[in-house]
Input
Amino acid sequence: MKQNTEEQSKSENLASNGLVVRLGERQLVSVPDEALSPADEAIYNNIVVSTLNAVYNWGRRNSLWPVGMGLACCAIEFIGTQASRYDLARFGSEAVRPSPRQSDLMIVSGTVTKKMAPVLRRIYDQMAEPRYVIAMGACACSGGPFVGSYNVVMGVDEILPVDVYVPGCPPRPEALIEGIMAMQRKIDKQRVLLQYVRGDK
Amino acid sequence: MTAIRSLVSPRLDVKSLPQAISESIVRVVESDPPMIYVIPDRLVEVCRSLKETVGLEFDYLIDVTSADYLDQLEVVYHLHSVPRGHALTLKVELDREEASVPSVTGIWRGADFQEREVYDLMGITFTGHPNLKRILLYDEFVGHPLRKDFALPKEDISSQIG
Ligand code: SF4
Output
């Protein structure tokens, strides 16, 4: 009983100094500096040790900005993946860029026609390195339903190097998210930083 | 229901077309909207009177398309009148070997891209078109793929199936 009142008065004391947010049973308190005990202080000033490559890759894989490359029906599914229900922002890839200069991932979502192929290649060439390509849907993987067509490229891998293939016609948003996660796992294994410091290719 | 329908889209009576048009008609097909076949050489005059005659006023060309019937080609024009609310399907029959028809871009500007598409995919020439070149396919493409006798070169197919 005594303890309870003590805690109450402590939190009231804190409330008078800082901001208290109540979340049901819990309280979030923003603590003014002078109220911190030496042990609390130590927690706040903690240091995490890691490798530079791990931190660098962690940042890269969680902010893969795709260039807008919706070429056919799969693009609708890509837009669905991005919107609130599937919320691609959870994976850091929601910022679709209209400019290849600002993006490092190309999600080819749709049918690549022979007329579009040179444009696609040019946009890919304009992206800053390191850059990645996801082939989304049967069309981008292999030509899909258009095998035997007069105007369809039989898979985007005929003109670009592809990192991840996502099959389906169209793939569901979950499948695309799985593809992006596969891309992230792949990036995690890379040692791009070292390559760039030493100027390797 | 009939009353409402006729309110929404009044039917055009083909028999009441002015003589300038009716003398160029090859035959009429009863359908909704009515369908008329016209002589290809008279197409521009017919279209102009369809657009300019008071009471007809076909000011809106919905689309231009084409069909391959193996013995002949057809170009199809779907017309609509915004002030009158009625519609008409206009067709011309063409010879497969020398498929050529006058362009109606001078009457409806909207025909421009549509005629290019028909030229690109079906190989029908529109004489008097300001810029008749391929629109959907790349310029180096050989042939017109929507023709029924179009076939991909053998090596193309085998390389696709791999
Ligand atoms: S894979 Fe299917 S859904 Fe995707 S672009 Fe091709 S046809 Fe459309």
Residues A 72-74, 110-111, 137-139, 144-145, 169-170 surround iron/sulfur cluster (CB under 6 Å). The two ends of chain A are 69 Å apart (CA to CA). The first helix of chain A runs from residue 2 to 17.
